[in-house]
Amino acid sequence: MRRLASLLGLIGGKRLNKPLHHLDTHRKCQSGFSLLELMAVILIIAITAMMTMPLLQEQIAAREIETIARRFIAHAHFARQQALYLGEPVRLVPRSGDHWDAGWLVNSGCIKTVSKSAQTPCIEKAWFSQANIGPVYFKGGGKQFIDPHSGKKGILFNGAGAAKTAHGGFVANRFILGHQRSPTLERQMILGSGGRWRICDPARDAKRCH
């Protein structure tokens, strides 16, 4: 009986030891596969990021261009409304000579005050000032609101709210904005004959840009 019990114990011990050894090996296999899966996921994420990075940069550049375009148009609307309110000319001009990239100014064309003794000279009043707009810039093309008589850039809104040149000609014109990080990207800001502005993308809607 003792021999039979010891034999059964040995057999039972072998049966118990085998599953434990097999379970330990199975855990090692599971651990190895999990690490490979993690590496595969990281690789997929890296490849996806590399593929989407140019598209993301272009979307950021487009948003920056549209922000500058809307800001310029908002300042132009303000200049026109001030001209209508005051009944006097208001100008939107480049900050630095003929370079719109350096920013722009909104100021009065001329405010005259008359006293009993003498007439004082014209005094310009500034309302808005926009600094450098980089990495956005004004591309070549379009007339860029150049007065054909004086050769200077700028928009003059008269007391009736119309955009006129220094010699009275109506301005129907456009700006073309570009971005340094995306050379093919551009937006056009167009001032129509009715005094309304619009922003268009020539790559998507070429007809609306004409």
Outline the fold blueprint:
Layout: H1 2-86, E1 90-96, E2 99-108, E3 126-130, E4 136-138, E5 155-157, E6 163-164, E7 173-179, E8 182-191, E9 197-200
Antiparallel strand pairs: 1-2, 1-5, 2-3, 4-7, 5-6, 7-8, 8-9
Notes on the structure:
Helices cover 40% and strands 24% of the residues. The chain is of the alpha+beta class. Strands 3-2-1-5-6 form a 5-stranded antiparallel sheet, with helices on one face. It has one helix at 2-86, and strands at 90-96, 99-108, 126-130, 136-138, 155-157, 163-164, 173-179, 182-191, 197-200. It has one domain: minor pseudopilin epsh fold, CATH 3.55.40.10. Residues 113-118 have low confidence and may be disordered. Strand 1 (90-96) and strand 2 (99-108) form a beta hairpin. The chain is elongated.
Give the CA-based shape: elongated
Query: From N to C, what is the helix and strand string?
Result: HEEEEEEEEE
Counting structural domains, the number is 1
Detail the poorly predicted runs: 113-118
CATH architecture: 3-Layer(bab) Sandwich
Order of strands across the main sheet: 3-2-1-5-6
Largest sheet: 5 strands, antiparallel
Radius of gyration: 36 Å
Write down the CATH topology.
minor pseudopilin epsh fold
Helix content range: 40-55%
The CATH superfamily is: minor pseudopilin epsh domain
**Alpha plus pi helix count:** 1
* Beta-strand segment tally: 9
Quick check: average pLDDT?
78
CATH class category label: Alpha Beta
Strand content: 15-25%
Q: What structural category arises from helix and sheet content? A: alpha+beta
Distance between the termini: 107 Å
Q: Oligomeric status of the shown chains?
A: single chain
